[in-house]
Amino acid sequence: MKEKKSCLFSYFFIILIAHFLSPVPLQADEKLGLSKGQTVYVPAYSHIYSGNRESPFLLTVTLSIRNIDPKHQVEITVVDYYETQGKRLKKYLDEPRIINPLESLRYVIPESDKSGGSGANFIVEWKSGKSVNPPIVECIMIGTQTQQGVSFTSRGRVIVTSDD
Question: Domains in the chain, please, with CATH?
Answer without folding.
Answer: 2-23+32-161 (2.60.290.11)
